[in-house]
Amino acid sequence: MVNEAMFAYGSERSAIREIFAYATARKAEIGEDRVFDFSLGNPSVPAPPAVRDAIVRALEEVPSTQLHGYTPAPGLPEVRSALADSLNRRFATTYSGDDLFLTAGAAASMAMTIRALTSPGDEVMVITPYFPEYRVWIEAAGATCVEVPSKEMSFRLSVGNVQQAITERTAAIIVNSPNNPTGRVYRRETLVRLANVLREANAHREQPIYVISDEPYREISYGQEVSWIPSIYPHTVVCYSYSKALSLAGERIGWVLVPNTLPDAQRVRSSVAGAARALGFVCAPALFQRVVAACADEPADIEAYRQNRDLLCGALGDVGYTFAEPEGAFYLWVRALEPDAQAFCDRARELELLPVPSDSFGVSGWVRVGYCVDTNTIRASLPAWCELARMYRS
Ligand code: PLP
């Protein structure tokens, strides 16, 4: 016997993984440079030299048994303290290492935080379109995933829709800005309005509604301010990761922040620690704890992503595609040229173009184009995008 829910998660079809597997096989068949794989969110920019330096320094300076040994469950105190200091410099806050719990990336941070803040039967709101794993983490906690539509066509956060979806079972809302898959960065005014709506709802409840801010793309913004949500709404827990900012996706390192300004912070912090225990997510990778402490103030190199975004948006705009102008992250959210996004992707595949249909993200009729690829891939794909548009016109 196995657990049926886990069996379903493990065996259900993942569109993204399937496209990636197809792309790998197809590249072997017809050549790397003839297949345009836009499926994954794997950073295409190398990790900064400071990462390598920090790894080498740690290997040279820290005795092996310490370097590779267990750390305390929430991470090394000196690392948590260095990361808190870095946040304080950036956001004029007064956090300490106690506010941080180091994790194996945002996936662990989110799974732990959702588990910590919900009880079975609670509801967690997600804004559509949304990162597909949210549903898995919410349901695995015994809670219900409530889909709240973003604004039509613009994909901005609709505070009105959030307000309408609040029930007495609402425990939390997941905010992801910069957003995967739309590239939207939510404006400060919108987040202030969201905070006001949540405060108003809280006035009639015993438990506040939490904001779970999923921020793996915080550093990838093309000019828009990425607001620090705990300064706008106190019941906010932040889930962060170095996967995208420092191109360390495979190393699995990030954190959960329960800010000292959060009312009842100690209780929430203990619940996060308890969820880490329950899920087996204690002691984040020890070498990379030290590396991110050394690189805490390292800026993300986003110029290649900006160049890719400009190239792709310019060319797709010229041939008449409709898309959400990406303000952050490294995804372009493009309207399919027919209502069925899967059928559109099938036609795109004939031209070796491999975007992801929007159905995976909880909406129909759009596709996600991950432009975290070599700029030459973008350039080489442009004739195929034109040809695809032409096929639909004729
Ligand atoms: N949240 C979002 C919105 C993501 O896009 C991803 C990864 O792509 C994650 C969480 C998980 O990130 P990590 O690699 O840090 O686990």
From TrEMBL:
<dbReference type="InterPro" id="IPR004838">
    <property type="entry name" value="NHTrfase_class1_PyrdxlP-BS"/>
</dbReference>
<protein>
    <recommendedName>
        <fullName>Aminotransferase</fullName>
        <ecNumber>2.6.1.-</ecNumber>
    </recommendedName>
</protein>
<feature type="domain" description="Aminotransferase class I/classII large">
    <location>
        <begin position="35"/>
        <end position="379"/>
    </location>
</feature>
<dbReference type="InterPro" id="IPR015424">
    <property type="entry name" value="PyrdxlP-dep_Trfase"/>
</dbReference>
<dbReference type="Pfam" id="PF00155">
    <property type="entry name" value="Aminotran_1_2"/>
</dbReference>
<dbReference type="GO" id="GO:0008483">
    <property type="term" value="F:transaminase activity"/>
</dbReference>
<keyword id="KW-0808">Transferase</keyword>
<dbReference type="InterPro" id="IPR015421">
    <property type="entry name" value="PyrdxlP-dep_Trfase_major"/>
</dbReference>
<dbReference type="InterPro" id="IPR004839">
    <property type="entry name" value="Aminotransferase_I/II_large"/>
</dbReference>
<keyword id="KW-0032">Aminotransferase</keyword>
<comment type="similarity">
    <text>Belongs to the class-I pyridoxal-phosphate-dependent aminotransferase family.</text>
</comment>
